[in-house]
Amino acid sequence: MKRTLVESGPAVGDPTLRDYEALVLASPDVHVVTNEQGVFRYVSPGCLELFGWEPASLMGRREDQFAHPDDVAVLHVAREKLAEGADHATATYRFLCRDGSFLWTETRSRLIEPDGSGLVLSSMRDVSERHQLTMALKHEASTDPLTGVANRTVLMDRLRQGLRRMERGNGVLVVLYVDLDRFKIVNDSLGHRVGDTILLKMAERLLNHIRPSDTLARLGGDEFVIVAENMVDEVAGTELAKRIIDAGREPFQVGIEEFICTLSVGVASTADSQRGAEDLLREADLALYRAKDRGRDRAEVFDEDLQSRADDRLVTERMLRRALDEDGLVVEYQPIIDLCTGGAVGSEALVRMRDPNTNGLLQPDAFLDVAEETGLLIAMDEKVLADAIKQVSGWRKRLVGTQFAEVAINVTARHLADVGFQKSVVEQLEAYGVAPHNLQLEVTERVLMEASNSAITGLRGLRDAGVQVGLDDFGTGYSSLAYLRQFPLDFVKIDKSFIDDLDQDLANLAIVAAIINLSHALELTVVAEGVETERQLRILEDLDCDRAQGFLFAASVEPSRIDELVHAGRNQIFESAAV
Ligand code: C2E
Ligand code: CA
Ligand code: CA
User: Fold this and answer.
1) Nearest ligand for residue 333 CA
2) Share of the chain above pLDDT 90, in %
3) When comparing pLDDT for 189 and 381, which is higher?
4) Ligand 1, closest atom to CA 493?
5) Is residue 340 assigned to a domain?
6) What confidence tens digit (pLDDT) does each residue in 138-193 have?
7) pLDDT, tens digit, for every residue of 416-467?
8) Which of 347, 350, 378, 531 has most ligand 1 atoms within 8 Å of its beta carbon, as the pocket-test mutant?
9) Are residues 158 and 244 both part of a single domain?
10) Can you tell me the distance from the alpha carbon of 579 to that of 575, in angstroms, rounded to the nearest whole number?
């Protein structure tokens, strides 16, 4: 059988055409000639190998009949380009194979005779491998590598699209912010592998509870977001949240162990297509905060109240930033009394913030949460640390001959985790010539529990250097006794709640007595905090408590007043507290 390049073309035998033909036959590509209407006029033999079609079987049929329905437009666009005079056109589309499957091909076309016959010469190349690779890369860029669900970029895209689509007025769009409760503890105690497995399984569970048209994304860590479009109303959103929380309560089987990792969910919804995607996500996040606040394993819906609280927080954050910049933070000191001698042995540094509007001092409960959330806490506590060391160095010099020698600061998990913390403490002690044992670090059990291994190592390092470490708010935590054994401590502070009704509640009395005995057995100094009455003081003295702190002696005062109080001795301290 004779092959001709083009049916109506020049005769076979022309030497140049022979050369072309050899080239075409040797090429791994499939070469085709189509007419103006896209009808095949020549198909090279490689077609059989690549697509499974005998070239003859394609003759007279239109090329777009072989294109994947979704790709027909691509082919037509390439055609139009040529018709409009382009030198060549490229189309990447799926071509139908004999076995019914589709193969990704890249087709480069040009007119054989510009302004002439309208015949088009195309070479088709198999690009399925390259296409798969590109798709894989695209997928990678748009999904969370661990769980395979969408990432933040895709989420925001979908959220924006969803909002835009709402213009047609179909129901509400719901955003659920989902967070695994206490995941960090699971991760830290069972290891990252188990943590990853749980995240993966949780993603699967969440996928089981949403519709195919909904979007599930992971925003890193243990946070997931679900976008559900076309929900009937807000209530449908809350119901979805409830189902998800129920799903979270199912225990996980990891190895031979079973455990539970509950979920907290924040819900925000809108029927307004003009809403911003970021706003909606932030609202769901605020609602999630409240769910965590109210005890986790529950859902909360965003409302105006949350908004106004968020606004308040913003005001506080601005105030705090200004205070940090402009010396608006004030450190007060509350004396700590030695119950044997009645004299002050040291003081606790307590931070306050000046309110620029009233010029009054705000107490920590008005700004500590915001400081923590915004990360300003470290800068704040660094200031307190610096001030405390500076003050104690001054007192050591001015109050020679008295017992007064120590200063205590409150240390948070964040500060402890800060890489510069340990160094900063050591450097400041050296700079002011203060002995390490004159500094006391107060941590709560929660701080110890949340601290990473490296933070704990840092704390140990400081204690090895002589800094005293004590457990604050003792008795309010989880497994109090375990910490007394695990972490080497110097003192414990019995929480004010136990001291409050010491004189009325016999059970409390027993607890306080036990804490004191136990602490003494472990050679720890015991400090009672929040002592307000003489009766409480008498009982504590009877129980052999070492130290006390409270309004009975003095509230927190500015540093210069500490000198007066110490010089005046115990009686004076009593009087000043009464003022
Ligand atoms: P805390 O460490 O338990 O501090 C003791 C709190 O009890 C202080 O409240 C103190 O003023 C108050 N207090 C002391 N004696 C009495 C008393 O007899 N009766 C009553 N009702 N209260 C008494 P403050 O200053 O409002 O601090 C609250 C908490 O804020 C502190 O609890 C501490 O956890 C945190 N905090 C205070 N200053 C700082 C700081 O500089 N940095 C950090 N990270 N946290 C701080
Ligand atoms: Ca404290
Ligand atoms: Ca306390």
Assistant:
1) 1
2) 65
3) 381
4) 3
5) no
6) 777 788 888 889 999 999 999 999 998 886 667 899 999 999 998 988 888 888 88
7) 988 899 999 999 999 999 999 999 999 998 888 888 888 999 999 999 999 9
8) 350
9) yes
10) 7
Q: Which residue CA neighbors atom 34 of ligand 1 most closely?
A: 410
Output the pLDDT for position 373.
Answer: 87
Question: Residue 472: CB within 6 Å of ligand 1?
Answer: yes
Question: What mean pLDDT is predicted for residues 15-32?
Answer: 79
Asked if residue 373 lies in contact with residue 364, where contact means CB atoms within 8 angstroms, the answer is no
Q: Among the three residues 249, 269, 302, which one is the final residue of a domain in this structure?
A: 302
Confidence of residue 16 (pLDDT cuts 50, 70, 90): low
Verify whether ligand 1 is closer than 6 Å to residue 444 (CB atom): no
The number of residues making up the chain comes to 579
Q: Is 381 a pocket residue for ligand 1 (Cβ < 6 Å)?
A: yes
Q: What is the mean pLDDT of residues 290-296?
A: 92
C-alpha distances out from residue 132 to 28, 104, 138, 139, 210, Å? 20, 9, 10, 10, 28
* pLDDT at 4 (0 to 100): 45
Predicted pLDDT at 3: 45
Q: Is the pLDDT of residue 77 over 80?
A: yes
- Output the residue whose Cα is nearest ligand 1's atom 25: 350
Q: Does residue 267 sit in the same domain as residue 232?
A: yes
Instruction: Using the mean position of ligand 2's atoms as its centre, give its distance from the Cα of residue 529 in Å.
Output: 9
Instruction: Determine whether the shortest distance from the Cβ of 350 to ligand 1 is under 6 A.
Output: yes
Same domain, 158 and 296: yes
How far away, in angstroms, is 132 Cα from ligand 3 center?
Answer: 61
- Residues 127 and 151 reside in one and the same domain: no
* Domain boundaries, position 187: 143-302
Torsion over CA: 148, 154, 155, 158 (sign): negative
H or E stretch at 323: helix 304-325
Judge if the beta carbon of residue 38 lies within 6 A of ligand 1: no
Which candidate, 217, 113, 207, places its Cα nearest to that of 155? 217
- Could you tell me the CA-to-CA distances from 155 to 243, 262, 530, 546 in Å, in that order? 21, 23, 50, 58
- What is the reported pTM? 0.64
Confidence tier at 507 by pLDDT (50, 70, 90): confident
Instruction: Give the 3-state secondary structure of residue 469.
Output: strand
Beta carbon of 363 within 6 Å of any ligand 1 atom: yes
Q: What Å distances lie between residue 184 and 101, 147, 222, CA to CA?
A: 47, 18, 8
List 317's β-bridge partners, or say none. none
Q: Decide: 475 in ligand 1 pocket, CB within 6 A.
A: no
How many Å lie between the centroid of ligand 1 and the Cα of residue 512? Answer: 20
Last residue of a domain, one of 104, 133, 162: 133
Strand order, beta sheet including 30-34: 40-43, 30-34, 120-126, 102-111, 89-96
Considering its fold, how many domains does the chain have in total? Answer: 3
pLDDT, mean of residues 7-28:
65
Q: Identify the CA nearest to 344 among candidates 409, 410, 399, 411.
A: 399
Tell me, yes or no, whether 72 lies in a domain: yes
Q: Is residue 352 part of a domain?
A: no
d(CA 219, CA 131): 28
Query: Residue 575 — very low, low, confident or very high, per pLDDT cuts 50/70/90?
Result: very low
Question: Ligand 1 centre from 529 Cα, in Å?
Answer: 9
